[in-house]
Amino acid sequence: MKKSSLLISLFIFVLAIYAVLLTVFGNKEWEGSYAIIFNALHTVNIIATIIIMLTILSKNDNSQRKVIWLAIMILIPIYGIFIYLIVARDYKTKFIQLDRPKIKDKTFLLHEPGVDIDLPAHDIFGYAHRLSGRTPYEGDTKTKVLTNGDMFFPELLKRLSEAKDSIYMAFYIIKRDLISREIMEILKEKAQKGVKVYLIYDLVGSKWFRGKLVNELKSAGAHVVPFERLTPLHFFNAINFRYHRKLTIVDGKVGFIGGLNIGNEYNHKSRRFGFWRDTHLLVEGRGVISLTNIFIKDWYFATGKWLDTTYHYEKVKERGKVVVLESGPDYEEPIIKQVYFKMITDAKKSIKITTPYLMLEPEMLYALQTAAESGISVTILVPGKPDKFWVNQATKSYYEVLLQKGVEIYEYTNVFVHSKVLIIDDKIASVGSVNFDPRSFNINFEATVLIENASVKDLVHDFAQDLSKSTRIELTEWRKRSLINKIFQGFANLFTPLL
C-alpha cells in the first residue's frame, strides 16, 4: 500500500476509535494525558469536518446530494466525517487511485480490442464505449440466456470440468454447502493438474467461505483472495463497498455473467425460498476478452499484481451487438447508471425491468415516470416473497408514485426474484449483477452485458412467463393499505441511499 493511502486509512481508523470512545464514555471528564489525547482527537475531528464541508460545497454535484451530506455534518457533528469517509463514493475513488495507479491511469483499457464497427453518436453501444472505454462487438460474440440455477449450474459445472488452461472466477456470495463444495472440488482437481485457477470473493457476501475450504484450494495450487482485506484499516471499505460481480471465464473461451451466486438457494434448494428466480448469461466469442479484462483488473485491485494472460477466444459468427460494462467506485462516473438512464430515455415503445430491489434516485424515478406519461409501456417485476424486510418496505415505498403515472408493477407470487434485467423496446437488453437501487448504481462493484441480439427474444419470453405467474399491483387497492404499512414504507424510504 502506498504511504498516502496508508495515512488516509490510519486517519479513518483513529476517527473510528474516537467515535467508539465517545459512544461508550459520553461526556466523561478525562484527566492528565487522557484529556490531552481526547481533546486532540476532538480538535482533529472539527478541523477535518470543516475541510470536508468545504470540499462538498466546492463540488459540481447535484444540490440534493450536497444538502444531504452537509446536513449529516451539521446534525451529527462528531460522527459526520466518519460516515462520509466510509460511505462517500468519491472518497473511495480517490483511495483506489492512490493505492492502484493502473486503475487511475486506465491501463487496463489498453488490453481491450480496438473498435472496428460503425457507432453513430446516438447509438447506446457507442455511448457505452465513450463512457467506459470497453469495446462493443458486432457479429463475433454469441450469448445464451441461462434461466435459473437449473440451467446455470449444469452449464457451469460442464465448462469447469472441460477447462484445460485457466479458470477465473469472482463471486459476491460463495456458500459452504453442497453445490459450493462440488464446484470447489472441480477447482481443486483442475489446480492439481496445472490449470491456472484464480478465485475472488467478497468478504461480506462470502462470510462463511473460510478456513478449510479456502486452505484446501490453496494447497491444491489455486490462487484465492478476498476482494478487500479484512484488516482494521480496510474493514469499513469491505463492509460498504461490496464486490457484487458474478464472473467466470474458462480458458478465455467462454464466460458467465449475471445474478447467480454459488449456493444451494440459487439452485432451488433453500427451505426458506424454495424456487429461486434468477438469470445468468453465457458469453462466447470475442466478447469474452472484455470479461477477462474485468477480472484481470479486479485481481490487480485485490492483490496489486497484474495477471499476464493470452486470449484464446473461439471465433463465432452471430448477428447483433454486445458490450460488457462494469461500474463502481473504481470509476469516477457511475457508468452503468448513466447507460441505463440513456436506455430508458431513448425507449420508444416499452421498458421492462426485473429487479429484486427497487429504490430509485430522483433522476431514475423521473425518467420512468416521464416514459410512462409519454405513452411508453413501463412494466416492473419485483419479488412477491422478500429476502430483507426493510429493503422490501423501501421498494414498496415507490409503488404509488410510479403507479399514478401509469407504470405497471407486478409481484412474482410467493417467489423471490433475483434477476437483474432491463429490456428496451424488446430489442436491447442488459443482464448482469445490477439492482435498481443507489447501492448498485453508485457504491458496489457491478458488471453487466448489454446485448442487441437473438438472446433478447429469450429474455422477453421469460419476462412474459414471469408476469403470468405474478400479481399486478392496482393503484386503487394499493392506496387502501394500512397506516402502519405506510409509515414503515415511508421510514424505510429515508434510508434508501444506505440500504
Topology, number of strands: 18
Report mean pLDDT, rounded to a whole number.
87
Shape-level CATH architecture of the largest domain: 2-Layer Sandwich
- The spatial strand order of the largest sheet comes to 1-10-17-16-15-11-12-13-18
- As a percent range, the share of helical residues equals 40-55%
Distance between the ends? 30 Å
Radius of gyration: 23 Å
Name of the CATH first level of the largest domain: Alpha Beta
Given the structure, what is the number of helices?
A: 20
Describe this structure in words.
The two termini are 30 Å apart. The protein folds into three domains: 3-87, no CATH class; 111-327, Endonuclease Chain A (Endonuclease, Chain A, 2-Layer Sandwich), CATH 3.30.870.10; 335-436 and 450-494, Endonuclease Chain A (Endonuclease, Chain A). It contains 20 helices and 18 strands. The strands form three sheets. A nine-stranded mixed β-sheet has the order 1-10-17-16-15-11-12-13-18, sandwiched between helices. The protein has a seven-stranded mixed β-sheet with strand order 2-9-7-6-3-4-5, sandwiched between helices. It has a two-stranded parallel sheet with strand order 8-14. The longest helix has 27 residues, at 32-58. The protein is of the alpha/beta class and 499 residues long. Helices cover 45% and strands 18% of the residues. The mean pLDDT is 87.
